[in-house]
Give the backbone structure.
Amino acid sequence: MDFRRSYRSAAVTYVDLVSRVPADKWDGPGLGDWTVRELVGHTVSSALRQVPVVLTTPGGEIVVSSAEGYWALARQVPADIYAAAVAASGDDAHATGLVLGDDPADAIRELAGRATQAVATAADDDVVLTAAGGMRVRDWLPTRTFELVVHGIDLAAATGVPHNFSPEAVAEATARAARVAIAVGEGEMLLRALTGRGELPPKFSIV
């Protein structure tokens, strides 16, 4: 599927999922230390709200040349910088969750509309400024689709509300995760685990 269509599809599905979250679930457990509201806040901030900003900010030279390189870069930064980024992400998740107010679905629907409009006007090879540095639109946007699908599945698991991500969307996210594992040197270990020839370490993650 074209990367624009994949993003739009994931955004529409995510908005629908949020609209079905029961009111009594918002302050319950979401993911790790996050509440459901904070989990949604993180997803909205990273995968919807920032999209129009990034797509209209020139990035200069290309620093990261692939979607998998975006996550692989996190393995290369000093531990203290990574820890600071994680802490900032948590603060942003909390703040964004609060800003969504009493009717998160309406606010998120509006943000998704702005994001998809921005996607429609950006050229594939435009170089934009991302958290990892300059990236082509066609390389960066799939990282936002991945966020929507993975955290959408997280939200469904936390709330017991079935998600409607298509098999194609789940397959794309799974394939993307496998490519990240290869990029960080863990492809063979993942392949062996997926084919019953080995096991992954506890809490293994490619992000």
Q: What stands out?
A: The beta strands are 29-31, 34-35, 127-130, 133-136. Residues 37 and 161 are 15 Å apart (CA to CA).
